[in-house]
């Protein structure tokens, strides 16, 4: 199994009218899904679809920036305890909790604390279990996200805690539904490894009990994670198109509507 952590995006960079990464003081992984080439060669509209790590630490300057971007909706995939520990309530931002508990990662930490010795390969397997859980067990959460996207094209941000796993799968589904190539979806997914910075206090606390080689797997992304989700969806449904249609309710008509709403031209 390939355990490389720093695979670089394969697509050459292109000039864009906006920076993909939105610099905010309270997040490190807030970015725009605009500019990618989708169906019929049309590009994803800038400044409509954003993905991020959690939003609890936003400063007043950050909040002003989000208001200037017209971001008025936030989809929060975090579990209940995550939201309690790092909650937020920004007046202009309507929150929608689509709860996906981080059960596999919690299990990994519990096993370590109980004295079990996890290897990096074991941890990759646990992360793949997490992603396979997104495909079937949590399909309704992602279906709800698509229903929200179809209801309005008001700028929206979706996030979890680090903006890498639950958020990464959501971003992959949205981009695929808009006709973006699998290769570009991979590239967007791997950008997390360049952008996300775990909070120093969290890193210091975790390092006291969890080996760094395990943290490097848990706090980064690897293609085997995402590919395990694609593999299960295609095993169960045959193709990603059928998975989108049958599991998430995003068939040809819905994809055409998404294209009208979120692709240029």
TrEMBL record:
InterPro entries: Prot-tyrosine_phosphatase-like, Tyr/Ser_Pase_IphP-type, Tyr_Pase_AS, Tyr_Pase_dom. GO terms for molecular function: phosphoprotein phosphatase activity. Residues 140-210 form the Tyrosine specific protein phosphatases domain. It comes from the Bacteria. PROSITE patterns: TYR_PHOSPHATASE_1 (PS00383), TYR_PHOSPHATASE_2 (PS50056). It holds the Pfam family Y_phosphatase3. Belongs to the protein-tyrosine phosphatase family. This is Protein-tyrosine-phosphatase. It comes from Comamonas terrigena.
